[in-house]
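Incident log, entry 3
Record: RND family efflux transporter MFP subunit (422 residues)
Problem: checksum mismatch between cached and fresh output.
Input:
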Amino acid sequence: MQQQFLRLTTLAILALMAAHPVLAADTAPAPAAAADPAASYVTVSEATRSEIVSNIPVSGTLVPREEVLVNAQISGYAIEEINVDIGETVAEGDVLAVINDSTLAAQLAQANSELARANAAVSQARNQIASTSSALSEAQAQLERTEQLKDSGNTTQALLDQSKSAAAAARAAASSAEDGLSIAQAQVAQAQSQRDLADLNLSRTRIKAPVSGVISARNAKIGAIVAASGEPLFRIVRDGEIELEAEVIETALGLIDVGDPVHAAVAGHQADKLDGKVRLISPTVDQTTRLGVIRVSLDTGSMLRAGTFASATVEVDRHDGITVPSSAVVTASDGQTVQVVKDGTVERRDVRAGILTEDGRREIVSGLEAGETVITRAGAFFRNGDKVQIVASSSDTAPASVPSAPKEEAAPLGTPAEGAAQ
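Fresh output:
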């Protein structure tokens, strides 16, 4: 009974609409607007001119720029005092440690005594020379008088021979005295050398800092016997300066120059980035790893710790250029292209792409001008002359409104739009 009632009601309504066509026209839904079946919805971006920075990523370890080894310069004596420890700052000339000097002090005293004895021998030799010189002068004068007397017949040959013998003996004594002085002077020089060595060794019992800096290692211990050929007693980082030692692949090493700016991130350091410059580039590459080494001096290098890991970027180039989103560049076997949109039509454009920037944009070296619009997604699916409709721009703050499509299946981006429901 209920079904029969519903059927009758429906027939009555249809009859009423047939009797009043104007009413039917007013209540029927309007047909959907027809869409261009050849158009595709696309997301685009504008080619922009901006500053392009080319960076090379590197990583490595913080190391002392210059580490100075402090060794003992004497052997066989015990350390009796240590004045510094690891991490302390020292100035050039500061006493780091003291070695027991009692034996060396005694050696210096003995050397001073030997030097005094040698000086006394020199004085004695000089006195001997003076004495023999006087005797030689007298003997020579006596010989001359005797020879004159012999010539005049007033003396005998025996007295003349005696005078000659006396003069010869005086000359021999004078020569011996001269030799004695030379020997005594040589002994003074030797004693002086021994005294200087003893004094030097005594001074070496005070281990001093050869440079200003920070103590990075201490091997010295109270009571330890030092050896000149042993391990260093201390290590000092000159001026406390720490720098980055980083490895670079050989293909990138040639792009880096001394003085290039560097931005580093150091593990555990409160600053987000530390600025620096390339100080040194290794002239060789490891034949096994194919890596080269660079040294980077960092600002506030004295506040860093050696051995810490750090990553960095080396800025090798900075210039103005045109960029587009990297997704807009299509790379194929025959080269690189972008799809330029002009008046709703696609133009396939050959380009030469450059570097990829940190914000994900690709440099276009040639083939595109600033201000031109390119498809940023699915560009490989379009050909010259294709019709497109822009639905969004990657530079817009909000996407442009998308043409309406049936609610049950929205038209996907980058594909032809479906026509309205018939």
